Structures are given as C-alpha cells and as structure tokens.
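=== Given protein ===
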Amino acid sequence: MAIKITAIRLSGGEGHEHIVHLWWVNPADGKEGSNTRAQLVDWIEKENGKAYVEDSRGNRADVGVVTPSSGPKHLRTHADGKWTNNLLALPRK
C-alpha cells in the first residue's frame, strides 16, 4: 500500500524537521487518516510503508526518512535522485 500525503502541520519552525503531523489518503481504497511524524517514520522503516506526494500536474515524489546527525528522524520527499521540498508545499492544517 502506498499512501498519498495531502497536508502537514508544522510546529516550532518552517523546515522539514518541524513537520509534526501529516494527513493522507490511500488511493486504492479511499481511506483517509492522519499520523504523527514519528508514527509514519516507524511505518516506513519497520513495515516497509510507502508514501508519496503529488503535485497538481500528477508528478509524484516519494517520501523518505532523513536521519540527521542530531535530533529526531524526519520525512522529506526524494525525486530525480535528490531531496526536495514537496512536503513543505502541501496545505497546512
């Protein structure tokens, strides 16, 4: 199952490391939900979960886990071989 991330909530700043909550939809069955950043990091790493974002033209960017040298792991999009800012472009809740 791959979920499409549709919105984010930031706390304490404007960077990827400040994303604290994410909203998603499963296009396969229409199920919607939301999870904390930590829950989605665990799901991706421990359960081989797949997530992505999609722009208005249908271009997809996969969501991956970033492990910084300090601080908690966070999520960021990866497209065309480089880390991108697609998550930060999503609507805020």
